[in-house]
Predict the structure.
Amino acid sequence: MAGRYGGGGQGRRHGGGGGRGPGRGGGRRPEPEPIRGVRDDARLSAELLRMDGDSYGRYKSLTGDWDFGDFTLTVQHAQADPFAPPSRVRVLVHDAGIPKSAWADPVRRRATADHLGRRARRLLRGSLLRIDTGGQEVIERSSCQLTDGGIDLRIGIDLPGRGRRIDGRAAEREFCATLPDLVDDLYWEEIDVAEAEAFADSVADTVALRAQLEERGLVAFVADGAILPRRSGVSDEPMTGGAVPFESPASLRVSVDLPHRGTVTGMGVPEGITLIVGGGFHGKSTLLHALERGVYDHIPGDGRELVVTRDDAVKIRAEEGRRVERTDVSPFVRGLPTGADTSDFRTENASGSTSQAANICEAVEAGARTLLVDEDSTATNLMIRDERMQALVHGDREPLIPFIDLVRPLHRDHGVSTVLVMGGSGDYFDVADQVVMLDAYHPHDVTERARALARERTDADFTAPRPRVVDPASVDPATARGRSRIKRRDMDVLVFGDHDIDVRSVEQFVDPGQITGAGLALRELVRGRHLDGARTLAEALDSLERALAKDGVTLLGGDFGGDYALPRRHEIAAVLNRLRALRVAEQR
């Protein structure tokens, strides 16, 4: 667009509009008074140029609303110095000409917002303005929301300076030229409408496919032609050369009708117990990883647009060292030498086996109906005990009930299916309903061959874990100084008040913003009285989900000064269970 990064603040649609009153200042340190009187784009341009060379702290006088005519710029937070976290601004485009067909349906609304956010990121490349758009998944996030024909953008900016002095000319260029140009280029008449509609169509097909799984008795679907391998261990983008397109075994192939793509075929993963087997490096974990991510929708071109998993699927692993708070692990652990009650189990430092048992029981408590398990990240002694070990260590001396003895009762009695990658033990053939072998990334149905090798075995009983009631006072984001603190450190730690929550093993976090979103969700569980000391944890999560369905992701952080994305209930529960301050008031 002509004029991008030029000065003057006069875009095609912008200019003048009267003042909107003073902005909001505040804080502990003395701060400049907010600029008063008329606050429009011309005034902002003049003030920024006048500030050039002033002390950096004067930027705080910009806080509040600035009227650009067709959009309002709100400076929500101005950083105190050049080395502080970025400043935050909001751009509310009143009417971007977006037709009702793009935002009336919640699925298309989310998809269109995601598409426009990604367009904004491309348009801002090379500027100081940054917008959070995530990776390959289409997740509802705070950075771009649709407002019935308008657009609500939340943007970060490192306000420009020369040392600790304001670079007013650079700031004027960003606020009064780059932002108006960005808004112009997000108007519906300016975008590639066919591309935007195709993006939303793709997401709508994924959602429609996922909605069919339960009625078809499936936990997952992998489309023929899907590209599962990723570019590298640090890139979630599809492999561009040499990737083997997925092709379903004929015996597991199903056809589904989708609203935009029409009929598609692929491998249906039935309810029950499914083993994924094969030699090393033949694609077992790649397939499971795709199923883990299949609880989310993907952008067109990802290769996994039609790899879908029911949204109640949870990845399970061992997690040595985690805290467990009054979790009923008695299905897996009975008769400890210490005499501890494993139906009300608490530890500050769980072993691999007890952490995995707790992870399973907590997932089931939170509503998981599909477990995804890779033997490489499990505790071996919780997965299986072979005949020779049982002969040496008799059952009355072993408190652990292995998963192999419980996986069938989990499905038969509680409707919880399992998809399990297994490369080192054939004992799971005894309990498998179907076995898929990966050979050089080509799947083969080897169920009948596995059954020929299977043996009869006796199952244990799996009693549903006792529901827990959380003490809401133990879920507090306030620090010892009384200030709320919610932030993340990379993909490893959520800082919640004075507590660091280790989230490295919560593998279905796919976006950094979801970790922040989970912290905000913990706050909202208490603030919104979903956790009220009477509801069980599952009931509280149900209540929060209903509120989110009504109000959207901004329910979590309308007052939060950073980016965040919507997490699933299962990741919210996982983070809550890893909060070391958590206290359970009672079990039921």
In short: The two ends are 63 Å apart (CA to CA). Residues 6 and 177 are 6 Å apart (CA to CA). The mean pLDDT is 93. The longest helix spans residues 193-213.
